[in-house]
Amino acid sequence: MDWLYALMPIAGVEIFWPGLIILGLGVGMIGGFFGMGGGWMVTPGLNILGFPMAFAIGTDIAQMAGPALISTARHTRFGNVDYKLGLIMVAGTVGGFEAGAQLIMWLERMGKVDFYVRATYLVLLTLIAWLVFTDVSRKMRKDREARAAGKALDKLSTGIEWHKRLHNIRIPPVVHFQRAGIRCSAWLPISVSFLTGLLAGVMGIGGGLIRMPALIYLIGCPTHLAVGTDLFEVAISGLYGAASYSYKGRTELMAAVIMLMGASVGAQIGSVATKYVKGYGIRIFFGFAVVGCAVSIVFKLIAAASPVLRAFFDKAATVLILGLVTSLSLYIFTRFLLGVREELAAKRMYRASV
Question: What is the enclosing helix (H) or strand (E) of 2?
């Protein structure tokens, strides 16, 4: 079975290349659907497949910009991108990203990069899963109470409403984002983007893993606008990050190209699929994806800590992360096909009636 493995010349490791194809196609669909470049799955996925953590981060960042740009173009057609908000967040994103990249170089020199990045991932994924499911639970409770009282359901209400308090902090300049329907201090999106940029540089993600939830819960974007605007930011941080990590010699270009071919196709499917799933439906599936990714990282930490169990948990982590990407991609592709079929049927009925 040696033909299933390819030598990566820059990283100097042999990689199971079908895994790169699965990750590439899957990350395109998942990134376009959830509004992220997919690095929250691809960085641990590349590390699980055999890349050293620094190379996993750099390679993932290099491939994320392409599908993010394609998805952004698609979401622009649907009116899902607030470019004014995205451009204001650029300054914080770039500054935070470079700080994170420098931190990774320091941890690599200390020989502790794998443990600290995995631990950071685990803590962050746990917090985000709690946030998403708490929000969904509170939203469902509000809807039940409204039905019991005979009131109309508020489609714009959310379970967690931290953004309302943050909007009351009016440190000049105060900016109105017309597309998103938000009026707040410009320092709010700048601060959020700096934090997400920092974590992007540390963990090899476009920042989307936390930026999409942050846009919803801290800034107050509707879900569909958070997806599109976040992808715009992912594209920017991805382009900058690719240049930064390539300069540092931590980007495996062969692997990035293999994933990019699949990701470019998947990104278009995932972006269109958001038309056919309600906002809270996207949040629920995002939560399940985060939980699955966190479990795979736990497996990898157990493997690193126990030589006796290493082989079993290494394989378990690989199967779980690839299975998770495959399952989510199949779900998104199914929603895409069903939605397109229903839309075409509706158009045929309209034409027949006319």
Answer: none
State percent of the chain over pLDDT 90: 0
H or E stretch at 21: helix 17-34
Q: Which of 91, 43, 34 is nearest to 67 (CA)?
A: 34
**CA–CA gap between residue 27 and residue 23 (Å, rounded):** 6
- Average pLDDT (83-107) is 82
Q: Give yes or no for a contact between 179 and 225, defined as CB atoms under 8 angstroms apart.
A: yes
Q: Mean pLDDT, to the nearest integer, of 152-170? A: 73
Most confidently modeled range among 42-46, 167-171, 326-330: 167-171
Instruction: Using alpha carbons only, give the angle 191, 228, 198 rounded to the nearest 5 degrees.
Output: 30
3-class secondary structure per residue, 25-65: HHHHHHHHHHCCCCHHHHHHHHHHHCCCHHHHHHHHHHHHH
The answer to whether the beta carbons of residues 253 and 62 sit under 8 Å apart is yes
pTM as predicted? 0.60
